[in-house]
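In the design runs reported in the main text, the only information available to the sequence generator was the tokenized backbone. The following block is the verbatim input for one such run; it is reproduced so that readers can re-run the procedure and compare outputs position by position.
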């Protein structure tokens, strides 16, 4: 039997991320090998999970991949764990289209119970109909219990316990407000930085939760049959040499994407900020990240900029996503209008001026097949002379979008973060 559960909430802002990470660190400190997961396409929360649990965190996404793939990777990474903890996305039933891709859909798919995190800041017994609705709205899921966040006192919590008793949902504890355990945020969401003293913060979270949340009870009521996993043998084609950008500016990656690349070749990591030369590779992956926070350093590393430009011009294969695409442009313009020269392979500029959020799932329709990804950025392209041909991009609701997917020489560049843990993108675009 394996303690396994999904932490969800009625809406974003309820505190499920803070509580998830406090639970992960608490379990890790108790000696558990705890396996974290994240519903949806978020690549920042998984970094926090990894830090908190001391284990790599895996994305579970039923929009960007098929249900069998989600079940397979959940079983794979849970197979050696002492406990599995899944953090939900947005509200419990919020999906790309109704419940599609929602936390509820994933909980049903994996047949694991749900722990609701309720923001109780300005409510009391009125949580009863809320709990009743979440318990009975969709029979395919099981609400195992609830944790109440932003509770003022034990007497305030008593109202929540009364509501849980009358509805038939277990009250598993409460979390008082504590300004000392707030996580730092950037414009793309939560972000880890050495100067943020994250290690101290996450330990404080764990200790704070342990005082008023019944963690042992959660583990006890959420035990169920361990998912069955049979390992398959994957042969590596070591002839393909792969370079993956990885530093402070480029680090928005899905673990399963990197695993998929490792199955077709040997990965070497390099830093566009700190390294002066490229490793000897056939294919480069420039992932997204925060290049806008390191513009001066990236621009000053002229030798690396020239090396990547020469590689691209000579027919080298490159996948550049979001921040990686910005880096391949002529310049990145900061929010104050200052220009910082970049690689210059793509005839366009990327600008942080007048920032506007653009986000959502994406369907990429090629002649041969359909790929999936996610778009999430505040910058925009200006003066672009690059064109998209024979590729159509749609939203989750099949609305045609103007998101570019640039193919130039052997370079594929876009604002889209692709997911290819299930279908290798190298095989799709370059291994013909």
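Verbatim output:
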């Amino acid at each position: 039997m394996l303690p396994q559960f999904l932490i969800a909430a009625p809406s974003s802002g309820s505190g499920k991320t803070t509580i998830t990470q406090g639970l992960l660190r608490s379990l890790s400190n108790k000696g558990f090998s705890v396996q974290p997961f994240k519903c949806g396409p978020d690549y920042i929360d998984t970094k926090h999970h990894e830090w908190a649990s001391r284990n790599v965190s895996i994305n579970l996404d039923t929009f960007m991949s098929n249900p069998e793939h989600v079940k397979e990777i959940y079983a794979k990474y849970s197979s050696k764990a002492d406990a599995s903890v899944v953090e939900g996305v947005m509200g419990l039933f919020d999906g790309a289209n109704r419940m599609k891709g929602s936390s509820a859909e994933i909980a049903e798919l994996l047949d694991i119970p749900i722990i609701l995190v309720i923001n109780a800041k300005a409510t009391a017994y009125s949580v009863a109909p809320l709990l009743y609705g979440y318990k009975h709205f969709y029979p395919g899921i099981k609400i195992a219990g609830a944790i109440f966040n932003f509770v003022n006192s034990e007497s305030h919590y008593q109202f929540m316990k009364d509501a849980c008793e009358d509805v038939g949902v277990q009250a598993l504890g409460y979390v008082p407000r504590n300004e000392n355990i707030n996580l730092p945020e950037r414009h793309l969401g939560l972000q880890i930085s050495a100067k943020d003293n994250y290690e101290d913060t996450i330990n404080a979270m764990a200790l704070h939760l342990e005082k008023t949340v019944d963690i042992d009870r959660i583990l006890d009521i959420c035990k169920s049959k361990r998912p069955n996993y049979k390992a398959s043998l994957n042969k590596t084609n070591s002839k393909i040499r792969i370079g993956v950008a990885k530093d402070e500016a480029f680090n928005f990656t899905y673990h399963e994407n990197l695993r998929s690349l490792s199955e077709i070749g040997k990965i070497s990591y390099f830093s566009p900020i700190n390294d002066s030369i490229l490793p000897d590779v056939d294919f480069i992956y420039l992932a997204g990240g925060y290049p806008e926070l390191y513009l001066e350093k990236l621009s000053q590393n002229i030798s690396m900029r020239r090396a990547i430009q020469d590689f691209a011009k000579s027919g080298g294969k490159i996948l550049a996503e979001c921040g990686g695409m910005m880096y391949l442009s002529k310049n990145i313009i900061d929010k104050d209008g200052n220009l910082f020269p970049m690689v210059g392979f793509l005839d366009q500029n990327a600008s942080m001026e007048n920032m506007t959020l653009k986000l959502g799932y994406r369907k990429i329709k090629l002649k041969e097949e359909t790929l999936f990804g996610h778009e999430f950025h505040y910058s925009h392209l200006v003066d672009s002379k690059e064109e998209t041909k024979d590729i159509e991009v749609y939203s989750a609701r099949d609305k045609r979008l103007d998101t570019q997917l640039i193919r130039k020489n052997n370079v594929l560049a876009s604002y889209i973060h692709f997911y290819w843990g299930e279908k290798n993108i190298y095989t799709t675009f370059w291994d013909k």
